Amino acid sequence: xxxxxxxxxxxGLSASLDQDPRHEPAPGDRLASVLVPIVDVASIxxxxxxxxxxxxxxxxxxxxxxxxxxxxxxxxxxxxxxEEELGIAPSSVDVLxxxxxxxxxxxxILIVPFxxxxxAGREFRPNPGEIAEVLTYRVDELMxxxxxxxxxxxxxxxxxQAYEMGNHTIWGATAKILGSLLEIVRRVDA
Length: 190
Known about the structure:
Elements: H1 7-16, E1 30-39, E2 43-49, E3 60-61, E4 64-66, H2 74-86, E5 93-98, E6 102-104, E7 109-118, E8 131-138, H3 139-145, E9 146-153, E10 156-165, E11 168-170, H4 172-189
Parallel strand pairs: 1-7
Antiparallel strand pairs: 1-2, 1-4, 2-3, 2-8, 5-7, 6-7, 9-10, 10-11
Helix pairs in contact: 1-4
């Protein structure tokens, strides 16, 4: 399937996303938010976390993190974290809306993923303490790479989507968020 590379795709995405998410984590869980950054109309930005981070070292992720007490909303968390990790000011992001939240079972975090278009002229300035690499993949490349997997990971088994992108593998919560976005893109593009 060829993905339409136009503002029609963005308009269709926006119409399909939650414009006012109000998710609350279960008792004992924490709330986090991420930004799914779109650039050049049909490409998505990911980060590779540094190996020194205590959680998910070296994994492919979206910019984001745990909500701070002074964050007014999950969106504020996603934009604050994007600025901290990539140096992208909140005013440089046109937020289209939110995807369904993704609960993580091991770390007990409810992730609220927002989709946003990064305005032209952006310059990534990755925080070297958190981000080892900034990666950009076209939506059609991601769709072609999508597979269902069952992997033994430590004492458990990961069953879900995975995306082999050259030397990088997108899996876990990031893959679930990406799969949700690509499902909407397929509907909008049909």
